[in-house]
């Protein structure tokens, strides 16, 4: 069978059959806690850190998955093992873990789902979505869609309630085709991009990230800070305005699968002469050394991979 195998509610089944009920609170209210990971050389990267964040998010929303973190880790490793045959030895997988609160109270009489839904699935990484951006960079645009204020839910909560990302990216593409949104908070300061942390670089200051309390505690941006220390590049946190991005020497994005890559346009203004800069290249090389493979070359190699089809 070439289809990915998923874990859901105690069972292993084809990914196409791993469905959460329309009566589930994850569907009805969007109450889904999720973590996205990837492998490097077949090994899950920073699983412990992702599990810590998962646990914290579950605590915030008050959902007990009914499984220990150790058991979830065991299931994550097994999911990778069950799906490793989907890719070549030099290729890698993405892994998703999610937890919902189970059947929404209004529909409890219609279903008998015992407690929260826990799911884990893996799939080949979609390198085709980002491999060219290592060479060309990304465009960011500030839109009129604001980041969710911390008074609505804590910025550290990693959840799938992301309508604001969807609307912001939609608006960004209307302003500049192919762009993605640069999110601002209610005071007009930059928080992050949709589904990615943002960092600027200035030769006079080093790498600068928005304050920790203003952003999702990204695993990738934490790795970036570690790499910066190894490269003797200063790394600081402070409040940033859109103009700081428009005038930076370099602007970087970081997230789980692409790791780190350049932004070459912000609000229509060229960054680093409209091409990826040397700091981005140094950080990509350092990341490659950390994980034992060339992240840019791997993405190029498997960008045209034919995705497994259901047998």
TrEMBL record:
<comment type="similarity">
    <text>Belongs to the class-IV pyridoxal-phosphate-dependent aminotransferase family.</text>
</comment>
<dbReference type="InterPro" id="IPR036038">
    <property type="entry name" value="Aminotransferase-like"/>
</dbReference>
<dbReference type="GO" id="GO:0008483">
    <property type="term" value="F:transaminase activity"/>
</dbReference>
<protein>
    <submittedName>
        <fullName>Aminotransferase class IV</fullName>
    </submittedName>
</protein>
<keyword id="KW-0032">Aminotransferase</keyword>
<dbReference type="GO" id="GO:0046394">
    <property type="term" value="P:carboxylic acid biosynthetic process"/>
</dbReference>
<dbReference type="InterPro" id="IPR043131">
    <property type="entry name" value="BCAT-like_N"/>
</dbReference>
<dbReference type="Pfam" id="PF01063">
    <property type="entry name" value="Aminotran_4"/>
</dbReference>
<dbReference type="InterPro" id="IPR043132">
    <property type="entry name" value="BCAT-like_C"/>
</dbReference>
<dbReference type="InterPro" id="IPR050571">
    <property type="entry name" value="Class-IV_PLP-Dep_Aminotrnsfr"/>
</dbReference>
<dbReference type="InterPro" id="IPR001544">
    <property type="entry name" value="Aminotrans_IV"/>
</dbReference>
<keyword id="KW-0808">Transferase</keyword>
């Amino acid at each position: 069978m070439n289809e990915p195998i998923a874990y859901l509610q105690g069972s292993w089944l084809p990914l196409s059959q791993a469905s959460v009920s329309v009566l589930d609170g994850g569907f009805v209210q969007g109450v889904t806690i999720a973590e996205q990971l990837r492998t490097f050389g077949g090994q899950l990267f920073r699983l412990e850190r992702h599990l810590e964040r998962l646990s914290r998010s579950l605590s915030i929303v008050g959902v007990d998955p009914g499984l220990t973190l150790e058991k979830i880790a065991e299931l994550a490793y097994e999911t990778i093992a069950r799906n490793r045959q989907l890719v070549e030895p030099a290729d890698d997988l993405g892994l998703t873990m999610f937890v919902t609160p189970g059947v929404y109270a209004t529909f409890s009489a219609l279903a008998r789902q015992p407690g929260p839904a826990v799911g884990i699935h893996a799939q080949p990484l979609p390198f085709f979505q980002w491999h060219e951006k290592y060479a060309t960079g990304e465009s960011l645009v500030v839109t009129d869609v604001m980041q969710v204020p911390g008074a609505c839910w804590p910025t550290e909560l990693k959840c799938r309630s992301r309508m604001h990302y969807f609307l912001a990216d939609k608006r960004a593409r209307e302003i500049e085709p192919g762009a993605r949104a640069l999110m601002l908070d209610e005071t007009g300061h930059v928080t992050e991009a949709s589904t990615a942390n943002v960092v600027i670089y200035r030769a006079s200051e080093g790498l600068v990230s928005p304050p920790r309390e203003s952003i999702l505690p990204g695993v990738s941006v934490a790795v970036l800070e570690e790499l910066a220390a190894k490269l003797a590049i200063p790394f600081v946190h402070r409040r940033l305005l859109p103009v700081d991005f428009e005038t930076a020497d370099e602007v970087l994005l970081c997230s789980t699968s692409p790791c780190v890559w350049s932004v070459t346009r912000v609000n229509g203004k060229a960054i680093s002469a409209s091409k990826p800069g040397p700091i981005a290249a140094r950080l990509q090389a350092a990341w490659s050394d950390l994980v034992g493979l060339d992240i840019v070359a791997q993405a190029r190699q498997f960008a045209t991979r034919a995705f497994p089809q259901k047998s």
